[in-house]
Design brief:
2 domains; membrane; transmembrane helix
Length: 109
């Protein structure tokens, strides 16, 4: 085993530990303020609704080149990836509009 392989395994382990801590620590901290859990839950539900809408709009067409080896892309996976991309695009534009609105609102005040 090369040293690069060892460092890659260590990096993967640290990423997993960081992801677990990024999820658990805010949950532990929010136990003192249950109202923040409601806001977080509402945000997660809203994100799920946006993804469901974009998943419903997404196309499930697969080009024959991607249906064969090495990709083996199925129509279901194609629809999921399309829904995820459309969700990302939608949230990007909503964030961009929010930034523009905030800056205009600050300039008026």
């Amino acid at each position: 085993m090369d040293s690069i392989d060892i460092f890659l395994f260590v990096a993967e382990g640290l990423i997993i530990i960081g992801a677990i801590l990024a999820i658990l620590m805010p949950l532990i901290k929010s136990l003192g303020d249950p109202g923040s859990l409601v806001k977080t839950g509402a945000a997660v539900v809203a994100l799920g609704v946006v993804f469901f809408i974009m998943y419903s709009i997404a196309d499930n067409e697969v080009i024959p080149r991607f249906a064969a080896d090495p990709f083996n892309l199925t129509p279901g996976l194609s629809k999921f990836v399309g829904g995820a991309l459309l969700t990302t695009y939608t949230l990007f534009f909503v964030a961009l509009l929010g930034i523009i609105f905030t800056e205009i609102n600050k300039a008026i005040k």
